[in-house]
Design goal:
Blueprint: E1 2-3, E2 10-11, H1 36-40, H2 53-61, H3 66-75, H4 80-102, E3 104-109, E4 112-113, H5 126-168, H6 170-177, H7 186-192, H8 194-199, H9 225-231, H10 235-250, E5 254-258, H11 262-268, H12 270-273, H13 277-304, H14 308-328, H15 340-344
Parallel strand pairs: 3-5
Antiparallel strand pairs: 1-2, 3-4
Helix pairs in contact: 2-3, 2-4, 3-13, 4-5, 4-9, 4-10, 5-6, 5-14, 9-13, 10-13, 13-14
Amino acid sequence: MARCNRCGHESDLDVYTCDNCDYIIKSEPIETIPVLGSFFKRPTTKWFEPDNHFKRIIKVINPLTSSLAFRDINKKKDKKGPRWITFLNGLLIGLWAVAVGVHVNIATYNGVPLTGISFNPFSIGTKWVAFLNSFAVFLAFFIFGLLYYNILFYLYNYAFSISANFSTQLDGILAIRYNVQLKKSKSRDFMSGKSRLQKKGIETGFSVEKVAGKKPLKKISQTGKSKIMIYAYSPLIAINLLSFLLLLIALPSIDVAGTTNFGSMITDMEEIWNSKLWLILDLLQVIGILWVAGTVALALREIGNTNTTRLFIGNLIVAAIIAFTTILLRPTTGAGSWNILDRLGGG
């Protein structure tokens, strides 16, 4: 049981801020650590009204305002912000394809040089064909990016949720806080941490946010947990934008032979595919995933009003596993004998 020293509100949960007036009941050592402290410190200013979704995204990306952003998002959850985050990341994947295309010069077409001749198949009206082809490539990668990030965010939510349930019994806390009537299931009960909370003497029959006459929720997702978690992936927008600018500026330009044979075009572009810039982009993605481990900890801490340190450590473990298995084992990183892809290929 926790009591607020400012307003006297009582909670049956082990909370860190008052559910009624946002007063900080207790702080954590992680909030006093240099650098990390400014990122994880709980807001002390009073909340008045919600920001629009674009301002929220910018505040999440800014490490000095991330904590403020998640308090605001938790107070007033919305659907537009998560949709924009997915859209912008997908858009940037499409722009990656454009950035690569900018550095590809078609010097010949089916063996015919395009310089020093009166007729250029890529001039005049044919330029529109080239433009449409480029737009088609952009559109294809943009759609791929949308699908990719929809699936990726779903998997990230699942992985970080498992970590949060083991470190702080988050879903069990949300079941209490939002009066969620979870279906009877030993596996679901174990994963949510509900049984572990009950062993501590906390019953799920009371909800600190229960509204008189309001029907109980049936799913944890109805608490808005997934929405606030997707906001935590906003830093990937900054990482993908920086990657796009690097591709646009630092990728080597090459001359290739224009042909209807796609395989031949890919071979001609080996100089681009072998560029060390891709290693830098991979390392940026690793930084992005580790950054997300921190923002997800803030998001889940806010909605659960629970321990930051445990959430952050669990998320770092998950992020390290994701980074190692999906990025650091790529051939571009030179992982050597640890490279699973090389081993599968018999290398």
